[in-house]
Amino acid sequence: MFRRRRPRRRPVPPPVRRAWLARPLPPRVLQRLRRAEAHMQAGRYAEAAALWLDLAQAARRGGWTARAAGLTLRAAQALALAGRVEDAQALAGPALDTLVQHGRLGWARGLAQRLEDALRQAGAAAQAEAWHATWVARLPARPPTAGPAAQPAVLTLPTHCPACGAPVRHDEVEWAPDRQAAYCAYCGVRVAPAGG
Ligand SMILES: [Zn+2]
What we know:
3-stranded antiparallel sheet, 6 helices
């Protein structure tokens, strides 16, 4: 008569994966990240975008939601430079939302700015303006609260990640809570201070 009611389960949010707790990526993934950077440097934008989108999908499957969003934004930048302006913007908006939700505001702002630059470079001046107003102008350069990420950087970092070749920027890398170690936003490798 009495049906046992199943306790209602709350959906469990996926764990937030932190670079400083993670193991290094497999060499073949690092190699693909390096290849995407090389394509981008050489102006092979479509190839770079395709690789970054693949890598983003793999990151998402592994639970690396923020990293997947960052890789998607690199792909969007490459697509814009390849002239695929609408595809680039369609990918970039949701990815930026994800970075903001993860509190990665500095990274979001940097990537949003670089997409704006790419849109201009592709001759899409009106879209670049609109993109600026919708995203770049609304993203604070630094998190408004005084968390660890709001503190000034204590290390001088190299310009590029030694493992995957991605650009390294103080406000875009992932910092350990004590700000004594920085991790590449794209591959999670600990980035040793420049000259140290
Ligand atoms: Zn890296």
